[in-house]
Amino acid sequence: MDSLHAIRIFARVVETGSFTKAADTLDIPLATASKLVHGLEAQLGIKLLQRTTRNVTVTVDGEAYYDSTVHLVRQLDEVNSSFGTNHARPMGKIRVDTSASLASSLLIPALPGFHERYPDIEIDLSVGDRTTSMMIENVDCAIRGGPLYDDTLVAKPVGGAAFMTCASPGYLERYGTPQSPLDIASHHRLVGFVSARTGRLVPATFGEGAALVEVVPNAFLTVNEGNAHLAAGLAGVGIIHSFEFKVRPYLASGQLLPILESWRPAAYPYHVVFPQNRHLSQRLRLFIDWLIETFGDLDRKPNRPVPRL
């Protein structure tokens, strides 16, 4: 029996919680995965996994065995992937997860520069506004914004994204230009955005410190995806409170106009995160360093006085 292959399969079953998902991510038949893990258990003389008709759970011995072997599997994968026609050049695939807005506005436009620097590294990009389970979906790293709640992940700051409040010229011509956040709350329509992580409506934050003001969206439309939120602003549905990197091209073209610039809040923090027990391959380290280098200037918010009510 190929013990290393069996250990790799066992590790993926633990991480995904399923023989089927493990077999899919490793591109092997389900029967092969099950047979090799059974063989590993027989060789060790212990029960690693508890199987039922509905799920797979890890035994106490299985948890200890996983903790003792997972880093060895990662290191072996890295050694194997680092050798090829020219092992001095970093190569292999990185699976990255990020939001649709960040992918379309910043990451994808910048990736040609990464490819030019590291032509043998492939990027498998998973795009969506929901928070994925990195272990289950075999994600190497993710770019996430806002507070971090998962203490099983290592986080490195990437940069801060500046906020911008804006509306279409047609909307402002029809309804006028608000002079303060309270003006929005009383006399204007603010397009709602629902967090994919919490499922809750996100209030728009204006100003900082003692001048902090939160406005609850009050337009007839609420969305749960960044591109749809932008489309609502372009269509004149209402005012949008979004990231500057997202609306910047439309400000330049005049399709959106900035408002309440003296009320811009603190930058929204972004991090690149990866599982604690994930061995950092050379290619992943290079990608993370490139992210920090490339996105470190996300916050282009100009210095301005803090507004007072």
Structure description:
The chain has 309 residues and is of the alpha/beta class. The protein folds into three domains: 80 residues, Winged helix-like DNA-binding domain superfamily/Winged helix DNA-binding domain (Arc Repressor Mutant, subunit A); 98 residues, D-Maltodextrin-Binding Protein, domain 2 (3-Layer(aba) Sandwich), CATH 3.40.190.10; 101 residues, D-Maltodextrin-Binding Protein, domain 2. The chain is 40% helix and 21% strand. It contains ten helices and 14 strands. The strands form five sheets. It has a five-stranded mixed β-sheet, with helices on one face. Strand 3, helix 5 and strand 4 form a beta-alpha-beta unit. Helix 1 crosses helix 4.
Describe the protein's topology.
Layout: H1 3-16, H2 19-26, H3 30-44, E1 49-51, E2 56-58, H4 60-82, E3 92-98, H5 100-117, E4 121-127, E5 141-145, E6 153-161, E7 163-167, H6 169-175, H7 181-187, E8 192-193, E9 204-206, E10 213-215, E11 222-223, H8 226-234, E12 240-243, H9 244-253, E13 257-259, E14 268-275, H10 282-295
Parallel strand pairs: 3-4, 3-5, 8-11
Antiparallel strand pairs: 1-2, 5-14, 6-14, 7-12, 7-13, 9-10
Helix pairs in contact: 1-2, 1-3, 1-4, 2-3
